[in-house]
Design a protein that fits this description.
The chain has helices at residues 25-37, 44-57, 68-78, 95-103, 122-132, 150-156, 211-220, 254-285, 319-328, 344-347, 358-366, 378-391, and strands spanning 61-65, 86-90, 107-111, 137-141, 164-167, 175-176, 179-180, 187-191, 204-208, 291-292, 307-311, 367-370. It is an alpha/beta fold. The structure holds pyridoxal-5'-phosphate. Pyridoxal-5'-phosphate binds at residues 67-69, 93-94, 96-97, 141, 167, 169-170, 191, 193, 204. Pyridoxal-5'-phosphate binds next to helix 3 and helix 4.
């Protein structure tokens, strides 16, 4: 019998990853069905996923794409704004939000955030809009899954909702007041990236009530080929097509759609688990000096994509030190987000407030996202809470 060497011995305590995915048996067998069907790219599964997804978020149409970043770029281009038009968004977002504005040939305007919500307030939106001389459109981000007041922010920017796009990468399951995110603004863009609430690995969706916009998007996501040109390789189909507008290559495959369809059926259960995990964190982390817990919305519904705490001076250790110690103990963590204005490539191409982004910089320095997904166990949540408590000042 071989003597176990130390390196092969299992760690005494298993690490807790920042985010995990557990695909259902249904997803696995549906993927195998697609792989054996003889058709791998955009097809019937994508159509089914689009129909189920639109119904789930209460939108008339859903258009499946390759990523949320592509969804944002396509939606912004479909607004048909003059080249270089100013588009307002938050600096506290993933760089993809702002890259999409640039890829659409538009000029990003980055608003500072409210120190409590970490999202722009009506006041910060109104101020920067005024300072840059008005904006043509806005991308609203529901950070972490917390609902942003879309209509209020649009009004503050002097825009109608037809000039608003939502970045809902964190917001499948978010409700603004009494409505699910999905048909509030002109177009809503979702992500199915591996760490998001409905993980496929890669993928995105645009939902809208605007039939004309949907018609444009169905074409521009696939080179601009006239509608349904994906059928041209099907038996009996014609090879003919036209290109009405030059598009990009951002269609979704049937393999992705099979995973998405199975995930959508499980989604309410997965969301319920996220809400339970958030409640356990709230209870387990309560009363730790210098630790601020995530805001709960007064109205609407939080999707709990992230569980991000704020490490204030009273904690006794700064955010970086806490992150380092948690990592050392095998507890995954992350920071959402590095403000976009601090990223080298974006610095010179974005407009912003005259006095900079003092709130976003402070929020960024204090923010830490703890492990959050629908797989984490109660024991693991308790371990995270205990570790955070031990790492703070003794109370
Ligand atoms: C993940 C994310 C995106 C990009 O999503 P992809 O599907 O990876 O393109 C955009 N915005 C925010 C806020 C995100 O977190």
């Amino acid at each position: 019998m071989a003597i176990p060497v130390l390196d092969d011995a299992p760690p005494l305590i298993a690490p807790i990853p920042f985010s995990r995915v557990r695909l259902s048996d249904d997803a696995a067998s549906d993927v195998v069905d697609v792989l054996r069907s003889g058709w791998l790219t955009t097809g019937e599964r994508v159509l089914c996923f689009e129909a189920d997804f639109a119904e789930f978020v209460g939108a008339r149409r859903a258009i499946a794409v390759s990523s949320c970043t592509a969804a944002l770029e396509l939606s912004l281009k479909a607004l048909r704004l003059p080249a270089g038009s100013r588009v307002l968004t938050t600096t506290d977002t993933f760089c993809g939000t702002v890259a999409a504005i640039l890829h659409a040939g538009l000029t990003p305007v980055l608003a500072d955030v409210d120190p409590v919500t970490a999202m722009p307030s009506a006041e910060s939106v109104a101020r920067v809009t005024d300072e840059v001389g008005g904006v043509a459109a806005m991308v609203v981000v529901h950070l972490a899954g917390l609902p942003a007041p879309v209509s209020e922010l649009a009004a503050a920017a002097g825009l109608g909702l037809d000039r608003v796009i939502e970045d809902a990468a964190h917001a499948l399951g978010t409700w603004v007041d009494d409505r699910p995110v999905g048909a509030i603004s002109r177009a809503t863009c979702f992500s199915f990236y591996a760490t998001k609430n409905l993980p496929i690995g890669e993928g995105g969706m645009i939902t809208t009530d605007d039939e004309d916009l949907a018609h444009t998007l169905v074409q521009t996501r696939l080179h601009g080929l006239s509608a349904d040109a994906w059928r041209r390789y099907r038996p009996g189909a014609s090879w003919r097509y036209d290109v009405n507008e030059v598009g990009i290559k951002a269609n979704m495959t049937d393999v992705q759609a099979a995973i998405g369809l199975a995930g959508l059926h499980e989604f309410p259960r997965m969301q319920q688990r996220r809400a339970e995990v958030a409640a356990r964190y709230d209870a387990g982390l309560a009363d730790i000096p210098g630790l601020c817990l995530p805001l709960r919305p007064a109205r609407g519904r939080h999707a709990w994509h992230l569980y991000a705490v704020r490490v204030r001076p009273g904690f006794g250790r700064d955010r970086d030190a806490l992150a380092e110690e948690l990592t050392r103990r095998g507890i995954g963590n992350s920071v959402h987000f590095i403000p976009v204005h601090q990223l080298t490539a974006f610095r010179s191409v974005c407009l912003g407030p005259a006095n900079g982004w003092p709130n976003a910089e402070r929020v960024h320095a204090e923010t830490l996202s703890l492990p959050m997904d629908s797989v984490i166990s109660d024991d693991e949540v308790t371990r995270v809470c205990t570790a955070v408590r031990e790492l703070g000042v003794p109370s």
